[in-house]
Design goal:
Length: 254
């Protein structure tokens, strides 16, 4: 019977914690501890190495983070990849989707397996992403902000105004039940708003637990218009409950 994704993700997080605690771990030791086959552990280690969370060596793996704060960063990255993978699973054959300048939203691209997908984005970093489904990429153009890779300004907005997508997947600077989704950059607000408005099937905010309760400078979407949030198991339960009470569907991953 195929193992559920939540069990696999939970095991991989525990593997990551052991690597951080012990420095080096062996495949055989992990297989014995988790009562799975060495092949399963090797697949876990390959996945974690692919996401730059550890470094493999023959017969085992070691911590790839040099700073003492590495575990927190590893877990944060793991959660964001979880969210990206889940979001990619919501993309169906023939979908057209908006993706904004969020790194979590951008991470979706490598997980999309549906066919004939069109991605419309102002995220210039998408040119460096793997595209296994060979989705069609449409860049909105405009003024390029090199630090973030964001395409902004009137040119990008005029192009966005000419298209409608089936779904949008949006990262954020912060999200609160009382003010909604916020961002730090004023020149991205109008583009984000249009990506929420110009969809026919649904919009999704991708927000890991660190974004809950955080108030960035500018509102991109008020709380009453937030239909879906995808987050992780560490999202604060009181804020998740408040969003659900407002009618938002919160997809909380285990």
């Amino acid at each position: 019977m195929k193992m559920s994704r939540s069990i696999v993700n939970s095991r991989r997080e525990k593997v990551l914690e052991l690597v951080r605690e012990n420095g080096d771990v062996t495949v055989n030791h992990l297989a014995e501890q988790f009562q799975v086959s060495p092949l399963t552990i090797r697949r876990d280690l390959q996945y974690l190495e692919d996401h730059k969370l550890l470094e493999r060596f023959y017969g085992g793996a070691r911590n790839s983070m040099e700073s003492e704060g590495g575990l927190g960063e590893n877990k944060k990255q793991f959660r964001r990849e979880q969210i990206a993978r889940y979001a990619a699973g919501l993309v169906e054959d023939g979908d057209s989707i908006f993706i904004n300048t969020s790194s979590t939203a951008l991470a979706m691209v490598k997980y999309i397996t549906s066919r004939n997908v069109t991605i419309i984005t102002n995220n210039g970093n998408i040119i460096n992403e793997k595209n296994p489904s060979h989705a069609t990429i449409i860049l909105l153009g405009g003024e390029l902000r090199y630090v973030k890779g964001a395409m902004v300004g009137d040119f990008a907005m005029n192009n966005l105004a000419q298209v409608t997508a089936k779904k949008s997947f949006m990262g954020c600077g912060g999200i609160c039940p009382d003010i909604g989704m916020t961002t730090e950059l004023l020149n991205e607000v109008n583009l984000n708003q249009m990506m929420f408005e110009r969809v026919s099937k649904g919009s999704y905010i991708l927000a890991d637990c660190t974004k809950f309760g955080k108030r960035s400078s500018f509102v991109s979407c008020p709380p009453e218009l937030i239909a879906n949030i995808i987050t992780d198991a560490d999202a604060p339960s009181d804020l998740v409950r408040e969003f659900r009470e407002k009618g938002t569907l919160v997809h909380q991953l285990s």
